[in-house]
Amino acid sequence: MTSTSDHQSGEVDQAVLDGQAAYHPRALAFYDLMVFRGSAPLFWRCSPRNFQQMYDTSIGAKHLEIGVGTGYLLAHTRFPVSNPKITLADLNPSTLEFTARRLALYETTQVVANALEPIPVPAESHDSAALSFLLHCVPGSLREKGVAIRHAAAAVKPGGTVFGSTILYLGVPVTRSGRWLMDNLNGKGVFHNNEDHLEDLRDQLKQNFDDFDLVVRGSVGLFRGRKAA
Predict the structure, then answer these.
(1) From CA 124, how far away is CA 98, in angstroms rounded?
(2) Which residue range or ranges hold the Methyltransferase type domain (predicted)?
(3) pLDDT digits (tens, 9 = 90+) for 111-158
(4) CA 209 → CA 20, 144, 152, 154, distances in Å?
(5) Which of 40, 119, 167, 202 is most buried by its number of CB atoms within 10 A?
(6) What is the reported pLDDT for 31?
């Protein structure tokens, strides 16, 4: 079951649009192979198992996915209930439609939204929220775009969890091939992570959560923050 809400407040910065424009219908068909079998393990040195484990151990019965990609991780997640309610929030209608079709067995709601602005869902309405492989596509440094973490936290109930992952440029080990690919993707406007430092990510988590985890796998920061009950 799928419902849709179209909400965009004001004009969206062109760099934000550029960061999600690569996720068009043709590219989405190959995204899982390219990312979870290609760039993640080979260039960023992070096994897909790390992402899936975070979903399996963090997700709630009512979940908000911010920056939905193809829904690969959601489709393979072990939810704590048999009938989860999933809100899909993204600027790109193509990714929303693709992911909603993939999750057709679940109750989903599609929301067109910019992660740099408050997500148009009721405050404290979800058990969990995820920002997976999103922040490195958003322009600005983590000191600026870390506001997306605050917006995710605002949508989660007390005691709920915000989790996710992002590819970092600074403060983590990056292979020569990984640096080449990052620079290439930054040059094309697909990535915007050449200022993204591990310590800035840690600072954003400290600002939003009293209790959080941050681990590094290769060039990827995986994080989980628990909202105070």
Answers:
(1) 27
(2) 64-161
(3) 999 999 999 999 999 999 999 999 999 999 999 999 999 999 999 999
(4) 28, 17, 12, 11
(5) 167
(6) 73
**Separation between Cα atoms, residue 5 and residue 113, nearest integer Å:** 9
Q: What is the pLDDT of residue 35?
A: 85
CB 127 within 8 Å of CB 156: yes
pTM over 0.85: yes
- Pairing label, strands 85-90, 62-66: parallel
Res 131: pLDDT: 98
Triad 91, 93, 98: Cα angle to 5°: 120
d(CA 227, CA 229): 6
CA 41 vs. chain centroid, Å, equals: 18
How many Å apart are CA 199 and CA 85, to the nearest integer?
34
CA 205 to chain centre: 15
Residue with tokens 């600002």: 207
